[in-house]
RNA sequence: GCCACCGUAGCUCAGUGGUAGAGCACUCCCUUGGUAAGGGAGAGGUCAUGGGUUCAAGUCCCAUUGGUGGCUCCA
């Protein structure tokens, strides 16, 4: 006698077990018709799920026309559409395409599959796949769930010869995989585990034994017709279980929506996003250039982009000054020994440009074997090893890396981080506890050997300038310093009108012993990070196990126009660097103490941050950031002279101004300037020349706003720039 | 780095084995005008690079290089 509690608190009592569909029908015909799934005690289930005990039940419905679909409804449709797409692909390419794993995602779904040798899935197949998917949806076949016990299931999968599904099944059953030795955990075992029985569930799209079937945990919509609209989107590749040593699979992305209109709107939105892409805008507005002859991932800042970057940097620098930072400059390279001391080399050598070795040394090494060269480059002196091992109280440098001095290869590295240089600056003078914290800031350019496939416009590059600083402080000062970093973030994001970011607080994994520093220190630092993050007023997540081994951290993450997340900045507490570099300050007791170091680059790099800003503003920067803030447009060449006078006055006032003195008509000049997203256009003709006025047109306002005295305009625009206003406010 | 796709004028792109094209931008000429393109002419190419197949290659094949989307990675 199940008692079903509905979301509004109503209770319904049934004499015998009922399906969720029957409950929906008992509530109303309209609900029954709209129902596509059920949420039982918070878990998404098929509508056909039998309810045989007391539970909370919410019916998941397809949205009415014009209404937004619920996340649950989209999940059901997309999970179901993944089956439909898989069937369509097998119809088009053949049954020997082996299905592996096909979950819903935020914007659709994908299905990983193995395409046998000799066959190829390409975008040329998309029309056929889409057509077939539409047919399957039109056939409105029922999603039929049935269960088999473990042995029968495995026997069946063996017969079908799909090792991926066997692997899935074994993992779902909690057994070690007999097919794969991958050390990585299954991506999401719950996708296929049947929570109710010890067996496994299968779904037939139609009749079991007759129509297409797949091992699947579910749930699904009742029938294919309840998927509003679906289509295949793109091809990519993936590894089985995300393990690059495992099989390479073809990942087919698709998406589904409750209606064709929703799908069209989504596709349209993707189109729009493309126009906001910083790579597109950067090219159109001539902000930056990447040249293959210069090198992958190396940004050439063209004059206009250089202005944006410079203004942004000046803004950040001004805020740092207010917070008591002191600026330093350090070179782009440092000796190998420096990075051996910090530990970056050779531990992160794969992520760095290879060492720069002097010509004579290189010639001497020419006779050595490759392995010998590596050994001599990566080796350290006995003195250095002893020092580090003593200070870190561990065998940080193993004996096999210690070589006699004459065998060590000396050389330099392009710096992958600024901290070793800054540590050396700190160490170059004695420090009293009275001087702490020491805040060393530098827009420091670093170089990292990112994998070529990861490079992306301004957001992932190989040479970039961090808004870096290192705060050398006492343990007691950590909370205030972290708070200061976050205040800076708040001020700058607020000025730029950026609200769409999230914060991750990386905490230590309590089970792990890999961390350095005492438990009490960690507790305090973690508490300080959490408190500071909470004070920002945006969403933040605690991420246990995500701390660096040397301390907890706060990361700032933003999304680009196509939904990819990029980490901007980070604030990291570091208990280790003081040891590696033997840093100290004199305490009140007259003795030496280790400073704690806070690494902070809240905006990450100027490159990535500018990329994000370009997308944030869609290239329409506020006046203070705009490469060209005002453009004067003479009506005809007869007023060119007046236009030049206007421009001269603005330039004298510190405004970046241009003049379009060409032979075009005013309509053409306005159009061109609008496309270049210039904040203010001043149209000047004989009337203005006579009266000493300018006719103002403001970006985003599609008409002439009338004339105003030139002096008033200058005053207005200069004021707007001075306070870094986010919007355009000067009006006649 | 791996997989797939792509690379034609400064930009956006057409060109399915037979004489390299369009629009915009650029230069010049006409037009001297009041708010999203007035008109005309001209110039601009080693079709990413290198090799191969072919009587003939932008087009087909191989390699390299760069880009895009994913995967993996990201101190």
Question: Key features?
Answer:
732 residues; alpha+beta; Ubiquitin-like (UB roll); BirA Bifunctional Protein, domain 2; 4 domains; globular; RNA-binding
Provide a descriptive summary of the structure in words.
The chain is α+β, with helices and mostly antiparallel strands and 732 residues long. The chain has four domains: 59 residues, Beta-grasp domain (Ubiquitin-like (UB roll)), CATH 3.10.20; 199 residues, Threonyl-trna Synthetase, Chain A, domain 2 (Threonyl-tRNA Synthetase, Chain A, domain 2); 214 residues, 2-Layer Sandwich (BirA Bifunctional Protein, domain 2); 100 residues, Rossmann fold, CATH 3.40.50. The chain contains 22 helices and 33 strands. It has an eight-stranded mixed β-sheet with strand order 17-20-21-28-25-24-22-23, with helices on both faces. The chain has a five-stranded mixed β-sheet with strand order 2-1-7-4-5. It has a five-stranded mixed β-sheet with strand order 30-29-31-32-33, with helices on both faces. The longest helix is centred in the first third of the chain and has 23 residues. It is globular, with a radius of gyration of 32 Å. About 2% of the residues have low confidence. It binds one RNA strand of 75 nucleotides through strand 13, strand 14, helix 8, helix 20 and strand 31.
């Amino acid at each position: 006698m199940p008692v079903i509690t509905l979301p509004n608190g109503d209770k319904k009592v049934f004499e015998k077990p009922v399906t969720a569909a029957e409950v929906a029908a008992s509530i109303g015909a309209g609900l029954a018709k709209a129902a596509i799934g059920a949420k039982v005690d918070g878990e998404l289930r098929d509508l056909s799920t039998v309810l045989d005990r007391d539970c909370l039940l919410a019916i998941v419905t397809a949205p009415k026309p014009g209404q937004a679909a619920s996340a649950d409804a989209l999940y059901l449709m997309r999970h179901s559409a993944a089956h439909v797409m898989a069937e369509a692909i097998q119809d088009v390419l053949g049954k020997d395409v082996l299905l592996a794993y096909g979950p819903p995602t935020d914007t659709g779904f994908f299905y990983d599959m193995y395409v046998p040798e000799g066959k190829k899935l390409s975008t040329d197949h998309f029309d056929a796949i889409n057509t077939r998917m539409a047919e399957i949806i039109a056939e409105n076949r029922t999603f039929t769930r049935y269960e088999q016990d473990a042995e029968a299931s495995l026997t069946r999968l063996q017969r079908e010869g799909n090792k991926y599904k066997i692997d899935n099944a074994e993992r779902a059953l909690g057994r070690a995989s007999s097919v794969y030795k991958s050390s990585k955990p299954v991506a999401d075992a719950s996708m296929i585990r049947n929570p109710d029985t010890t067996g496994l569930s299968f779904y037939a799209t139609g009749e079991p034994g007759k129509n297409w079937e797949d091992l699947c945990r579910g749930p699904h919509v009742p029938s294919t017709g309840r998927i509003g609209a679906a289509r295949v989107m793109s091809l990519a590749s993936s590894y089985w279980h995300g393990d690059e040593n495992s099989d390479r699979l073809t990942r087919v992305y698709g998406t589904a929506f409750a209606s064709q209109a929703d799908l069209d709107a989504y596709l349209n939105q993707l189109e729009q996003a493309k126009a906001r892409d910083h790579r597109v805008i950067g090219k159109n507005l001539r902000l930056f250039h990447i040249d293959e002859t210069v090198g992958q991932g190396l940004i050439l800042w063209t004059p206009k982009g250089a202005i944006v970057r410079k203004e942004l940097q000046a803004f950040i620098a001004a805020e740092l000054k207010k917070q008591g930072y002191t600026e330093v400059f350090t070179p782009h390279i440092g000796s190998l020994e420096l990075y051996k001391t910090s530990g970056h080399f050779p531990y992160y050598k794969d992520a760095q440009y290879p060492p720069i070795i002097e010509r004579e040394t290189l010639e001497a090494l020419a006779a050595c074997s490759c392995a010998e060269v590596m050994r001599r480059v990566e080796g350290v002196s006995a003195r250095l090893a002893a020092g580090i091992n003593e200070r870190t109280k561990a065998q940080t440098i193993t004996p096999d890396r210690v070589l006699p001095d004459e065998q060590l290869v000396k050389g330099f590295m392009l710096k992958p981080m600024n901290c070793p240089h800054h540590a050396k600056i700190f160490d170059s003078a004695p420090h009293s506890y009275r001087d702490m914290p020491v805040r060393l800031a530098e827009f420091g350019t670093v170089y990292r050997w990112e994998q070529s496939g990861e490079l992306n416009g301004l957001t992932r590059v190989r040479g970039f300038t961090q808004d870096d600083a290192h705060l050398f402080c006492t343990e007691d000062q950590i909370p205030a310093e972290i708070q200061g970093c976050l205040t800076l973030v708040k001020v700058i994001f607020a000025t730029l009108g950026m609200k769409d970011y999230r914060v991750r607080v990386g905490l230590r994994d309590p089970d792990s012993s890999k961390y350095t520093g005492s438990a009490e220190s960690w507790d305090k630092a973690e508490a300080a990070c959490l408190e500071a993050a909470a004070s920002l007023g945006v969403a933040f997540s605690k991420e246990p196990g995500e701390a660096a081994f040397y301390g907890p951290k706060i990361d700032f993450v933003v999304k680009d126009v196509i939904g990819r997340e990029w980490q901007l900045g980070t604030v990291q507490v570091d208990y280790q660097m003081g040891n590696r570099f033997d840093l100290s300050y004199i305490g009140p007791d007259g003795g030496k103490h280790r400073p704690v170091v806070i690494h902070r680059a809240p905006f990450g790099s100027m490159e990535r941050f500018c990329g994000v800003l370009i997308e944030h503003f869609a290239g329409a920067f506020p006046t203070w950031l705009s490469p060209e803030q005002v453009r004067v447009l003479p009506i005809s060449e007869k007023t060119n002279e007046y236009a030049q006078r206007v421009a001269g006055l603005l330039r004298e006032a510190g405004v970046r101004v241009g003049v379009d003195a060409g032979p075009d008509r005013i309509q053409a000049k306005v159009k061109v300037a609008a496309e270049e997203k210039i904040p203010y256009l001043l149209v000047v003709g004989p009337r203005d020349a006579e009266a000493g006025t300018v006719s103002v047109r403001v970006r985003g306002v599609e008409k002439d706003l009338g004339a105003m005295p030139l002096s008033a305009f200058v005053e207005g625009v200069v004021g707007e720039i001075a306070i870094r206003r986010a919007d355009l406010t000067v009006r006649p």
